[in-house]
Amino acid sequence: MDRQVDQPTASEPVAQNPQPAAPKRRRVSFFGLLFRLLLAIAIIGGAGFFAFQMVSSRPEPPERQARERTFTVRTVEVNALSAQPNLTYFGEIVAAGSLDVRAQVVGEIVDIHPNVAAGNSISQGELIARIDDFAYRGALTEAKTSLAEAQLGATEARERLQLEEANLDFAREQLELSKRDLERAQTLLQSGALTQKNVDDRELLVSQREQALKQRQANIAIQQAQLDRQLASMERFEWQVERAERDLENTEIYAPFDAVINSEAIALGKIVNANEALVSLYRQDQLDVRFTMSDRQYGQIFADGLIDRPVEVVWEVEPENLTANGHITRAGAEIDAAKGGVQVYARLEDAQATTFRPGTFVKIFVPGREYENVIRLPETAIYDNRLIYTIEEGRMVSHDAEIVARDGAQLLVRADIKDGAEVITTRLAQAGDGLAVTVEGEAPPIPARGEGRRGDGERPAQGEQQPQSDDNATEGEE
């Protein structure tokens, strides 16, 4: 039956912009979904099977055997020896013989040596300065005049004394004669040849001559006292002459030794006082180096002999270091708590020392204790401060080692190894017993058949460092 479509009549209005009809939703059945799922699984399975066939049919790559890594190292041949390492210190140059030259008299400076200036040298006996000597020449003249007068007075007193001594002898003789004459008169009196008056006259004469003798003795004592006074005056005037002569000599000031002028405080026309410092000098041939030695080192060296131990002093200057030799002369009287040791002094000896100046900061090398049966190695040869390695059949072998001293950049070590052994000095992070090594410049050993080496493309194990060229380890080549 045909479907009739209603036609609008003329009387019905036609709708403007009619809305389209909504599409109808298609309904998928369960069997359609199952079919699609099975189809997808079949496609994936086929692709996987095809890929498996391709991989399994690929030819096997050639197997690369692992190769052992060989490290290139440097070695040093060692022999047991007796060594005396140098101990290094730092110190300063000090003047051992210094002197402040002072004026001994008062006066005006009238002459000065042309080299009197700080830093210049002056020789022993050279005139440093001269003080006006007019007053001192006059004082010397007066002292000499007084001395001459005292000498004249002493001569006169000595002559008077000699005269009195002669008179004393004469008085003694006269007294003896009078006494003998009195004895004869007394004898004659008993015989009646002389009277009593004659005897009394002779007794009076004896008494007078005894009195004269005593007077002569008194005069001698007086003359002796006058002579002693004149002699004392002579001694005083002689001392005045000597002092005047010394004052006159002190107007000229000379260098007491070969010296370097450290400082000066004089000028022409300056009035100086007695005991005023004019210049400060230090001896060129008496320079010391002062440095501090620790308690432990002081004890070790003192037991081995400290005094007269040689030292080498180095002044590091450009373009070439200055060096001087010397020997230790003394040590400080007490421990320096601030510096933690003992101050030691060494006297510089050779001619090179004259180029040094007080206050110079220098390096000092002092021979330490002597060690027997030790080997000398660089620091890179020591592992963990207790091991060294040698090479045996191309592999590293460890040995116990004891560090006994340091000698500059090297160490003195005791180890139980034979003379002529080659000790490895290259630092290896992988160092250990059995590690394959070859000496730099020598052909590496060829590995035995079946002994593999790690492939070039194989990465180092965890914690293993890639060896480097030059001083560090490098991978050997077959």
Regarding CATH, which class of the largest domain?
Mainly Alpha
Largest sheet: 6 strands, antiparallel, barrel
Report the C-alpha radius of gyration, rounded: 61 Å
In the predicted model, the low-confidence regions spanning at least 5 consecutive residues are 1-18, 448-478
Number of beta-strand segments: 23
Strand content: 25-35%
CATH topology of the largest domain: the name is Helix Hairpins
Which second-level CATH architecture of the largest domain applies?
A: Orthogonal Bundle
Going by helix content, strand content and strand pairing, the class is alpha+beta
Strand order of the largest sheet: 4-13-16-15-14-17
Sum up the overall morphology in one term.
rod-shaped
Overall pLDDT score? 80
Order of helices and strands: HEEEEEEEEHHEEEEEHEEEEEEEEEE
Q: Whole-Å distance between the termini?
A: 102 Å
How do you describe this structure in short?
It is built from four helices and 23 strands. The chain has 478 residues and is an alpha+beta fold. Helix 2 (134-191) runs antiparallel to helix 3 (196-250).
